[in-house]
Amino acid sequence: MDKQGTQSSGGNAQPKNPMNKEAASRIQSSEAKQHGGGVPKGSFASRAQSTADKRENQNN
Length: 60
Fold this sequence. Notes:
Blueprint: H1 21-34, H2 44-59
Helix pairs in contact: 1-2
């Protein structure tokens, strides 16, 4: 951990459980239910979906 109490990724380290489309979909669904069907721009759910999309594009 660094001085602020967070772990450093150390450069190109891969996450233990990388974000995938299925996980992003579950997160987005849950958040939409909490917000009356919509997902706010910049929310965790929208960032998760963006990350999953980027990972999928890198693998293709």
